Amino acid sequence: MRRANTILIGLFMALLWLPTLDSVFYVDRTPLRSENRSMAAFPKRQPGVHGLENFLNGLEAYFNDHFGFRKCLVKWNNKLRWALFKDQATRNVLIGKEGWLFWTFGQMIDHYGGQLQFTAEELHNWQVLLERRRDWLARRGTAYLFVVTPGKASIYPEFLPDWVVKVRPETKLDQFMAYMQEHSTVPVLDVRKALSDVKTVHPTYLKDDAHWNLFGGFIAYQEIMRSLDKQRPDLESPLSLSSFIMTNLPTTDGDLSRMLGISLIDSNSMSLFPKPELKKFIIELPPSTHPKDPKFTRNAQAKDRVVVFHDSFGMSWVPLLGYHFNQVSYFWRYSFDVNEIESEKPAIVISEINELFFNIEDPKKLMAKEALN
């Protein structure tokens, strides 16, 4: 009995000292997945009573972020929550059916369900913004196309949990498309039907990521080229899928699984590789540490310049639009930059915004930023 008590006390003392051991010798090698925030830094000592108070508060925050074996414990916690609560939304991620994950950013669930709707004033403001852009560009001989890329729930609602239901059948994007068709002639592209029509042939969105896969981006690229043809009949037709070799190699590390702190295998990672007979062009990308810096493609065998204002969904068009244009410049933002357009002198400007951001973006603020004359 005494020996058992001694072993128990020894184990207890070891557990008490393990965090300190890791803090000194870095025993825990567990790779910690994204927490989408900066970890607390060691505080600096400042004079005075308030300085001491701030130092102690900072010390507590630092300890909470860096205590021994924290990474291992966080990983175990994430795995346990995934195993027990797969039907729950956590850390802005909604866990759907068959392992599908959805980003709940911007009250996605309420927007999908139709609870949140545009007012008549908001719809009018979008119309004014887009017509100002269209007219400003037209005076410079430049065509314009506005594209709203669908959120994942709009294309794969069947994988949402059963408790996510529609209160109204019409979403903000439905409202917007109907309003623009009735009140304006600005070219606005809705690619939801095209993506929904082909998803039974090949998946168009990743399961553990908020984005479409390269096949989904390719379908949207085809729709863009067909839409631009109405303004520029001299453009080449979009490339067909037969111009590429498509593969589906499972991947890991989707952005939504990272937010959950777990590693999942995604079986929807469709990739496209150009066949040798396709003419090559140059792609200039920024360092991986600065993904939102401008990107460019250059094709000496093509004509015309294009400017694309986009978010992360527009990245899938970088290896595609370059087949058709002499130069395509990609700027990661929603507002127009007059200086960039004046400098590039493009024949076409494309604006892309994902549905989740479109639902909450304020067109009046975009107008104030752009100040188009």
Short description:
With 373 residues, the chain is an alpha/beta fold. It has helices at 2-25, 48-66, 70-84, 108-112, 120-138, 152-155, 172-183, 192-198, 214-228, 255-260, 318-321, 338-344, 355-358, 363-370; strands at residues 89-90, 93-95, 101-103, 143-149, 188-190, 244-248, 270-274, 282-284, 295-298, 305-310, 327-332, 348-354. Helix 5 runs parallel beside helix 14 (363-370).
What features would you highlight for this structure?
373 residues, alpha/beta, 7-stranded mixed sheet, 14 helices
Write structural notes for this entry.
The protein has 373 residues and is an alpha/beta fold. The protein is built from 14 helices and twelve strands. It has helices spanning 2-25, 48-66, 70-84, 108-112, 120-138, 152-155, 172-183, 192-198, 214-228, 255-260, 318-321, 338-344, 355-358, 363-370; strands at residues 89-90, 93-95, 101-103, 143-149, 188-190, 244-248, 270-274, 282-284, 295-298, 305-310, 327-332, 348-354. The strands form three sheets. Strands 5-4-12-10-11-9-8 form a seven-stranded mixed beta sheet, with helices on both faces. A three-stranded antiparallel beta sheet has the order 1-2-3. The chain has a two-stranded antiparallel ribbon with strand order 6-7. Strand 10, helix 11 (318-321) and strand 11 form a beta-alpha-beta unit.
Itemize the secondary structure elements and their pairings.
Layout: H1 2-25, H2 48-66, H3 70-84, E1 89-90, E2 93-95, E3 101-103, H4 108-112, H5 120-138, E4 143-149, H6 152-155, H7 172-183, E5 188-190, H8 192-198, H9 214-228, E6 244-248, H10 255-260, E7 270-274, E8 282-284, E9 295-298, E10 305-310, H11 318-321, E11 327-332, H12 338-344, E12 348-354, H13 355-358, H14 363-370
Parallel strand pairs: 4-5, 4-12, 10-11, 10-12
Antiparallel strand pairs: 1-2, 2-3, 6-7, 8-9, 9-11
